Amino acid sequence: MSTANAHSFRIEPATSWTTLGLRELWHYRELLYFLTWRDIKVRYKQTALGATWAVIQPLFMMLIFSLSFGKLAKVPSDGFPYPIFTFCALLPWQLFAHALTESSNSLVGNQNLITKVYFPRLVVPISAVLGGLVDFAIAFVILLVMMVYYGIFPGWQILALPAFILFAILTALAVGLWLSALNVQYRDVRYTIAFLIQFWLFATPVAYPSSLIPARWRVLYGLNPMAGVVEGFRWSLLGTAEFQGGLIWASVAVVLLLLVGGLYYFRRMEQEFADVI
Amino acid sequence: MSNIAISCEGLSKRYRLGQQERYKTLRDVVSSALRQPFKRPQDSGVQSIWALEDVSFEVSQGDVVGIIGRNGAGKSTLLKVLSRITKPTRGHAHINGRIGSLLEVGTGFHPELTGRENIYLNGAILGMRKAEIARKFDEIVAFAEVEKFVDTPVKRYSSGMYVRLAFAVAAHMETEILLVDEVLAVGDVQFQKKCLGKIGSVARDGITVLFVSHSMAAVQSLCGKGMLIDAGKLLVQGECHKVIEAYVNHVAVHEFNDTTDLRVHPGRTKDAEPVFSRIRIMNGDKEPTATLFAGEDLVLEFELNPPRPITSPTLGIGVDNGMGLRVFSVITYYSDFDWSRLDRPAVVRCTIPRIKLLPGRYQLSISVGNVYNQHVDAIYNAASFSIEPSDYFGTGRLPTPDLGVVLADSKWECITESGAELRQESEVLG
Lengths: 277, 430
Fold this sequence. Notes:
The complex is a heterodimer.
Chain A: E1 9-11, H1 22-27, H2 29-45, H3 53-72, H4 82-104, H5 106-109, H6 111-114, H7 123-130, H8 133-150, H9 161-185, H10 189-203, H11 218-221, H12 225-238, H13 245-276
Chain B: E1 4-16, H1 26-35, E2 48-60, E3 64-68, H2 75-82, E4 90-95, E5 99-102, H3 115-125, H4 130-144, H5 159-171, E6 177-181, H6 189-204, E7 208-212, H7 216-222, E8 225-230, E9 233-239, H8 240-251, E10 259-261, E11 276-283, E12 291-293, E13 298-304, E14 310-311, E15 314-320, E16 326-331, E17 341-342, E18 346-352, E19 360-369, E20 375-388, H9 418-429
């Protein structure tokens, strides 16, 4: 048992300032994988349509938007066909909305684990967010098909796409961390999510282009991190004319703030989860 | 220091009552903030209890320690704190080695996933690496005896299979310290034996084990050391049998009253309804007494006041000896006592003829159940009585406590001729 000393640790009362525990999180990466895998597997296990739901949702939204905003309201779409213009934005939006819904109740939903086993609780909301990546990947394939159909071929901007995908994930995670931790203490947070998503959808340029926003307001508009994500996706995939630098960097700044703040807040509240949940 | 697996000093855990009962909503917080903007949360008159109070101890590597105490004494809280699931309010602990916690079997099991998938999931939750699980997979499946069902969704398993599989995964954790919390409470006798066996073998391998249990027999057979926890405090620690004795004496009813008021009793289980209101102990001549002799009739009289009607009630009495061992039980179910309904105050008398108990102190645990086999009321150590030495065998030689657990009648006779020949021979010789 000589390895014992390598594993010693100290148990102490809760403190208001904690470390991020990222090294320990890395140590538990396999658990993260398993929880994500479990959520995905269980989600589609007994459904009739299985993974096709991942496609139906964004397609349906695109249809509705195309009819109501594209055709009826004649909302402009920066010169692109409206359906693909909006579908391109729906992709990261679905990831975000899914992450919000799943992560907000992730801790409470896993309370049987939280009260019985030790592991860094960050694993839970992170796995909730990552669980949406499978749907994202499936919808992405559909997007590629649509791009071929409309004859849109991306330029060099596509190289930035991975960065924007990461940006989307971090945005979802940043908000998800706050919501999941808050929901443990204040159970009505979960019920505000549906409303929050609705409102957020219209504050984000999914159904309309950000070019509708007057130039002087655009940076402020970028304080909504999803605006930056969506703009980035459109720019890298469809090659929209100008790179909305101010907007996108504002979004990045907000996300980084939210993420770091969220991590610290989560770690601090984590000390009480098992008692309050 | 290198030999100490766990050391705690002044561990204390406070829970706030009242706050837990209603989840806070933002609406409540906002409205109370508006009403009393400067009120600090601590002043809101919330009560708190100390689930653990100033617990300090040391456990050396390889020790097998049994943690015993009443329900709600704080045993599970102690394990939770040591498992890092919850943080102590005060004090600190130092752990030397990897900890594996078995606070519940099947944590994280998902009914939709197969046995195989759940083994990996549960193993990962318990902290095992995927490679490690793969390596031990066959062993785990063999231990759980679910070879044929390993690819079936767990929701199709019987409860026995479920619990066996869950325990099998947990039993293969490779840690230096193991914390086990009353997992033996689930499952059938065979499973419990298997659990105990595995814990025993793990202990023999030199793993430090902290074992919380209500079964004195299990604690006695597995543990060398013990700790008695009551109301959050560590009362006694040391050699196992001494701690068990202390528990029995502490929890036992000391005053050997022949009549005990049961309307309010500390030994009543948490969800019980007060059906028992009084118990009276009498001897064969119906005289109230808490001191009896072996060979006498033991007569127990219960006054029952059911708050609600009970259909097909079953009354059970368990007699435990000074070591906490259940010597015997008598239950109406096994008799021809016709009792279809208990819906008004009643007095029930149980006569146990020619009691065969050895001298010593005994505790009575009683319960009344309904037709669904659920306990409506149950009281541990409701009353106690003592058996004094007496001439049970009628030979003038009084039985001593070392004879065993109970007395037994016996008849001796010589059935061969050789005995007679030997006698004759010995007479010749000597």
